[in-house]
């Protein structure tokens, strides 16, 4: 069930049965020469919808633009500042809490969002108390990073070994190929790719990682592998979501 394809009476009826909502969050940033710019949001959204189908849950609108300032030297990348993303998330959550949602389960596709999302949760709890939100003590937020699910990381090691890397990875590219098989890209990749430089400003990132990859070989990706990652993530996160709903 997608919030944006529902009517308000349908959402009102849903809230009689559940106070949980799944929120996909990703990024709009470069993913190397063959990775889609929307990879992180595409992956999060697909997995969120798979979990919702299993758990009879509602999915909120995907937050497509995240914290990706270090990718801005690559054309097409878009980023929010951490402070902006934090405020967007607090307003998003505050709106939903006003209607009776209490369990907010974020499925995240971008590592750069993690710190800001966690800070936004803390800010939301504070704002909800200050604004006297109904039952602020019952509000619960959870961040699930699909790419960190043990079944996913195990499969990535099995398929790609050290060539999984940490950005523009074959696992996430494979998942986008499964979701959007008509958008599979091909391009020559250099054999050598940097892996270990710290992340600072955008120009420095482009100099350190000239084609956008971080230790990865996305040419290894296939749609069939993407389906395996999808199924592994959906199975694990469905269990996690159901446990979260009954958390105290």
From TrEMBL:
Top-level taxon of origin: Bacteria
Record InterPro entries: Creatininase-like_sf, Creatininase/forma_Hydrolase
GO molecular function, a single term: metal ion binding
Record-linked SUPFAM superfamilies: Creatininase
Record key words, sorted: Hydrolase, Metal-binding, Zinc
Keyword Metal-binding set for record: yes
Cofactor: Zn(2+)
GO biological process: riboflavin biosynthetic process
Gene3D superfamilies: Creatininase
Family: Belongs to the creatininase superfamily.
Name of the featured protein: Creatininase family protein
